[in-house]
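Lab notebook, page 48
Experiment: co-folding of the full assembly
Goal: obtain a model of how the components sit together before planning crosslinking
Operator: M.T.
Materials (sequences as entered):
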Amino acid sequence: MFSFSEENYLKAIFHLERKYQAGVSTNALAEEMETKASSVTDMIKKLSEKELVIYKKYQGVKLSELGNKTAIKVIRKHRLWEYFLVEKLDFNWDEVHDIAEQLEHIKSEKLTQELDKFLGFPKRDPHGDPIPDAQGNFSVANKMLLAELDKAEKGICVGVKDSSSEFLRFLDKNNISLGKEIKVLEKEAFDGSMLILIEERELRISQLISNNLYIKTQ
Amino acid sequence: MFSFSEENYLKAIFHLERKYQAGVSTNALAEEMETKASSVTDMIKKLSEKELVIYKKYQGVKLSELGNKTAIKVIRKHRLWEYFLVEKLDFNWDEVHDIAEQLEHIKSEKLTQELDKFLGFPKRDPHGDPIPDAQGNFSVANKMLLAELDKAEKGICVGVKDSSSEFLRFLDKNNISLGKEIKVLEKEAFDGSMLILIEERELRISQLISNNLYIKTQ
DNA sequence: AAATAAATTTAGATTAGTCTAAAAATAGGT
DNA sequence: ACCTATTTTTAGACTAATCTAAATTTATTT
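Observation: model returned without errors.
Model output:
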């Protein structure tokens, strides 16, 4: 079907499209893929020939219908495997990304379906991201960043924006996990830090932290 | 670490070494890998530079200590995944080979260990082949081919030599599965076929079949 | 609107893995 | 021991994915 590299580009474009609806630039894609702009141009041409993306020179790329469908399939597999690793093999949520990056490219419709069934058709991966179903549908939660909450407001922690091992381990260390309620006690205008209440504990967190935690209000 | 292709060559050499202890020929390897002899020579050179095989021009190859260890790790993963697919995801034993061929290349020591633990440290895969443990040790069963049994002898079916989907489905259709007792009622010298007794049923099977079924006698 | 800066593409090279065709080495038969 | 057939290796080419460096296009600034 498609190569690992092609699938990785599609996934990257999919994610970047959320940020740049007008079209994903070559440089943005190069940064996301940790490669050079010239390599990106080459690959985009190939994806364009295969009708996976819409591309006009110098104008950036967008996923075609087919490209979108393909990207979602890869993301579905990635998130199902992450769920499997955490729920069945006792991995911590900070250890699963790199392994899922490999597993997401395994080609077998039946495997994906059976895995989904075995896991009980989970709706979200360990980082709170929605898992697309077999038809490619997934819920787009009405979540917001903790940093956007005002003083005295509260919400449930539902996801992380940064899912690096470093950030996740920081959260573990401070006993912040998905599903817990967080209330903003104070906001410091000077540095953007905030004092929060979580499980009876008061905790001061920097803006970098609150900018990477997704919250659902009420 | 090593590429998919390198790992596949190591695995192929490992399997062929059982047949050709003196060294695996370029042509034998080419046939096993379904590629050309010239491609094999190129790859052998690379494996030799990486000290995975012992190679002298025109003399065939053998796995080095490192090559052997590496091949066994890949085989361990292949068989663990096959077990997973059959026991946890309800795959039939004839459907798992190609998927395991992909999964065997996933790189993560921890994943392999946790999967092994999750599965309860199984000793054999769905085709009766032994699963190497974390140290690379596995039992070499004292099995023989059904075709080698004489009239009136019996044994337990413990494995298959050919694990193609076609052969396995033939066995399913005739209700022959691992663990069942088979008794040889008659042997036909002319065509090598035999009449066997399995679960009260009498069945005539060709030599091609009896040559691909492993039996353990007491 | 021209000059400059930034982004993007092109040209040409590189590596891994493969191929075909030709050359070289080994093995077998007499 | 020689001739022939088979096996194996070498030489040169191809594709996918990448790179550097140069050229081109677009964007920004004055």
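Interpretation: The CA atoms of residues 86 and 92 of chain B lie 6 Å apart.
Next step: discuss with group before ordering constructs.
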